[in-house]
């Protein structure tokens, strides 16, 4: 096999593994925590931000959804049926709002992170991932 074929085979292997991880993670998150993979990412990004809150524009850049899709997603997570997030008014700019992680959201995230790690480790080790990514880098 030439370098181009090796590159594509490595890429397709990574892509297939990622698809399996995403599909299984989505299923586990829905069953155990009633959240989607995108909602899991929202909880994670907010948990890593100062004061565990982000403006929707900041979150939109990280999640990669349109403004309206992200607004619907966050509204659902702020609703009483989910309760993982809550709105917070921006003190610097009253027009801006933040979405903030609640205790329930933090609890869901901590448990979901354990399940996420279990799924990832089921399909690949960190060493395998690093080797695969390094082999792709060598092809550029």
TrEMBL record:
Domain HTH marR-type: 28-131
Name used for this protein in its record: MarR family transcriptional regulator
Keyword DNA-binding among record annotations: yes
Coiled-coil residue spans: none
Keywords: DNA-binding
InterPro entries: HTH_MarR-typ, MarR/SlyA-like, WH-like_DNA-bd_sf, WH_DNA-bd_sf
Pfam families: MarR_2
SMART domains per the UniProt record, alphabetical: HTH_MARR
